[in-house]
Amino acid sequence: MYFPDFLFRKITLPFLKKSSILLRGIINIQSEALKWMDLSSSLLEFVPRPQDIFIVTYPRSGTTLMQMMLYQLSTGGKIDFSHINEVVPFFDRLLTYQIQSVQDLDNLPNPRIFKSHLSYQNVPKGPCRYIYIERNGKDVAVSYFHFHVSHLGFQGTFDEFFDLFMKGRVMYGSWFRHIAEWQKHQDDPHVLYLKYEDLKKDLKTALYQIIDFCQLDVPQVHMPKIIRQCSFEFMKEHENKFDHISGMVWEKGYQKNAFIREGRIGSGTQLLTPAQIELFERTYSQI
Ligand code: PPS
What we know:
By secondary structure, this protein is α/β, with parallel strands linked by helices.
C-alpha cells in the first residue's frame, strides 16, 4: 500500500496540479483569444460613417502631424488631450484600448478621425474620407530604423534594418507595396493624396486643402494658432502628447507622475477602514 501512496503524492498529485494550472491557463488564453477574435472580426465589419476621416500612411510618414492638423482644424486649435490618440484613435490598435466593443465607437462625436497604417485592401471601406500621406521612402527607412532602436529595442545596425525594410520584413510590410496600392487610388473622389515633403514646405496650403476636402468650417481667426501648433517646434515641445510610449501608457490607463507619489507618514490610516486596520494590527501582533 505504501508504494502506490508514495507514487500518488510524488507523481500523480503534482501532475494533476500542474495539468489543472495548465488547463486553467489554456481556458483563460482561449477565452481571451475568443474575446479578441470577436472584437477583431467586428473591427473587420466596422462600417465607416460618411463623416469619418481615415488618416492612412506607411509608418513614419507624417501620421502624427496629420492627426494634429485634423484635430486642430476640427476644434479651432484645442490641445485639451493628454495624448493625441485619445482624440484621434489609432484604428489598428483599437483592440488594445479600453474599448470593449466596436459599438463604443458609436459614442465618438462627428467627425470621427482615425489614424491607420493599413493597406488599401485592408482599410475599412465606406462612404468616408481617406487622407493618405506618402513620404520619401529613403527618409522613411531612416526614421523607421531610429524608431525601432529608440522604441522597439532593435539592436541591429542600419544596414541590417535596411535589408529587412527592403524585403518588407518589418511591421506593415513592404513600403513599396503600400505606396503602390494607395497610388492606384490617389484620384478617387474620397481620397486626398498628400506628400509629407509638401506639408513641410507649406503647411498653410495643406491645411486649406484639408479644410476644402473635409468640408470643415474653420473660422479664420483660429488659423494662425493652428499653424503655430502644428509646427515641428510646438509638437517637439509637447512631445509627451504625441510620443508612441506615452500613447501606450495612455492606452493601458497607467498614470504618469505617480511612482514617486507623496512620501508621507500616516497615509496608511487614511485609506484603510477600521476593519482593515483591526485585521492588520491583529495579524501583526501574531508574527
Ligand atoms: S508613426 O510612428 O508612424 O506614427 O510616425 P509618424 O508620425 O508617421 O512620422 C514620424 C515622423 O514625422 C516627424 N514629425 C514632424 N515633421 C514635421 N512637422 C511636425 N510637426 C512633425 N511631427 C512629427 C517626426 O519627426 C518623424 O520623422 P523623423 O524623420 O524621424 O524626424
